[in-house]
Amino acid sequence: MAGVEVDAGRTQGAATASPPSRTGVFVLTLAGMAALLLWLYAPSFGNGFADDDFALLQQAQSRGVGEILADDFGTRSAPFWRPGWRLLFRAGYLCLGDQELPWFAFCIGMHVLLALVVVALLRRRLGLPAATLAGLLYGVGAAHVEAVLWPAAALNALPAALFLLLSGWSLLRWAEGGGLGWTVAALAGFVASMLFREAAYHLPLLVLAAWACLADAAGRRRPVRELLAVFVPMALLVVAHYVWLNRKSATRLSLGESLEQLVVCAGTYAGALLGWPGSGILALAVLVGGVGLLVVAGDRRTRVTALWVLAALWPYALMDYASRLATFAALALAVALGHAAAATQPRPWLRWLAFGLGALLLATHGLRHRGEQALLRDRGEVCRAILRSCRELKLHEQPFLVVDRVPTELHNSLREMLELRLGSAPPVVEMLLLPRPPLALYVGVSPDGVPPDAAVVHYEPSPEPRQHRFVLLPRAALAPGLVPVPPFAITESYQEFADAAAAGQAIAAGALDPRRTTAVVGPLPKPLPPEPQRGRVLGFRLEDRVVTAEVEAETAVLLAICHYVDLTMAPATVAIDGTNVPILQANGVANAVLVPPGRHQVVVKWLVR
């Protein structure tokens, strides 16, 4: 009996010391990941709204569900068809109000939930270590910090990514012999994702890749008729969404321009996914090489998920801009590396390579993470500082608001910000600034540069965002420096300067009038003849991120291009009759191109937002 008691005690002790259940380890893993991501984003819980947040909150405050749907399905005044996004903003406003903390908690919570969903989906197929690696790669990625900490972006990017993940995962299960339920789930997730953002444009490519690479347990692919039953509805919805709902013209760009757009956009994404401070051909080559290695060396599941990464880069090239929100490609990359980390056949070394690359990416993105968050916090702090000054100066009571040196990203949201927080706002005058106050180049205002009875406000930036402020100035303080200019202009002469600062100083000092003389940073690639330049701008039109001007010149002329963005510092091109030409700095922050005699079409195109 004593021996039995001893054995029982030993048995009980062994049971007590046994490892926790798989479910317990899984739950602990999810809890640890959630705690890590919340700690990572903790400094940003107190962020302030910025940019489009104010316009969307104001719309959510003033419009009901019927008006929102009527706008999306009827007049569609917004450039993109995203009814789910606007309805979610409406629901968020009703539940959270217009205070920052609940909104940022909600957005960060959505991101954490999506990372946990990645782990939950992959665990049974790949094992917990590989699934955890994939969840961390997505959750810690600095490439999509903006998609988490900017509510205007989070409420379309994160729901779209969630439905995109569910649809893509269902497609993989469908290709491996899944039944009708997986087909329905794939199509439903695809449609739901399109209600928030256009990232699902690439899913038809994933359908083809999954059908080509995957098979059921008996080694059979899905019949072609079943492939078409999934692929054709998705492809038709993409075409309809692109041409009709988003009101885009699929034939507006030539093939050469489309290829250029594709390379620039893909390079932008590749740099973001790798955690590199920048982007370009090198980043794209590294990413494509890594994906190619996974395709060649990986098993079938690794191969199709690796192709998913390249497919996810494509939609924004088609949409004619590269988004800074790399959430969708980052999600595909996390799933692909998770599959590679779980692979034991045909090359076991691929598993350890995937874990090594994953650790390297985690370290790279982790180092960048706080810096990316700081940029978003600064944007919110600028808005808060401006609001403090607006309350003090009672700017919302002014008939007009002419702002000097306001950050460019606030131009579209300043009025909405004042209306949301102060109850009313005056019209805000659009303008272009030179680097030396108090000079400003105003676009599209009254002949003397300032609307009557306007409040002229000077914005004083500071290294410490909380110290940013507006200062109300007498109209006379800025009036001598005001120079109204159109977006395109041809002057009679030009003068070369060593740099943009010298050109701005000359204009500010009155030594040069940019309405008569273009201050260009030289030397010109082809010097102009000494006689006066003779030409005129016949007209121009703005379409999305392309501006087209018709120019008629009797002699070679310098065409000044005034815009908020310095084209020499942005991924942009200027083409004359289809041929790209060198872009010169002019008039401080404007640009110029050399136009030969004759009638020409000048096209300015921004390749990346």
Number of DSSP E strands: 17
Largest sheet: 5 strands, antiparallel
Determine the structural class based on helices, strands and strand pairing: alpha+beta
Count of discrete domains: 3
Describe what this molecule looks like in 3D.
The chain has 609 residues and is an alpha+beta fold. The protein has three domains: 21-50 and 99-347, no CATH class; 377-483, no CATH class; 486-606, Maltose phosphorylase, domain 3. The chain has 21 helices and 17 strands. It has a five-stranded antiparallel β-sheet with strand order 10-11-17-13-14, with no helix packed on it. A hairpin with a 3-residue loop joins β15 (584-586) and β16 (590-595). α6 (100-126) runs antiparallel to α7 (128-140), α11 packs antiparallel against α15 (300-312) and α18 (349-393) crosses α19. It is globular, with a radius of gyration of 28 Å.
List the keywords.
17 strands, 21 helices, disordered N terminus, 609 residues, 4-stranded antiparallel sheet, 54% helix
Q: How does the SSE layout of this entry go?
A:
Layout: H1 2-17, H2 22-41, H3 52-62, H4 65-75, H5 83-96, H6 100-126, H7 128-140, H8 145-149, H9 151-175, H10 180-194, H11 203-213, H12 224-245, H13 255-274, H14 281-297, H15 300-312, H16 315-318, H17 327-342, H18 349-393, E1 400-404, H19 414-422, E2 431-433, E3 440-442, E4 454-460, E5 469-473, H20 475-478, E6 482-484, E7 488-490, E8 493-497, H21 500-508, E9 517-521, E10 535-543, E11 546-553, E12 557-561, E13 572-576, E14 579-580, E15 584-586, E16 590-595, E17 598-606
Parallel strand pairs: 1-4, 3-6, 8-9
Antiparallel strand pairs: 2-3, 4-5, 7-12, 10-11, 11-17, 12-16, 13-14, 13-17, 15-16
Helix pairs in contact: 2-6, 2-7, 3-5, 3-19, 4-5, 6-7, 6-9, 7-17, 7-18, 9-10, 9-11, 9-17, 10-12, 11-12, 11-15, 13-14, 14-15, 15-17, 17-18, 18-19
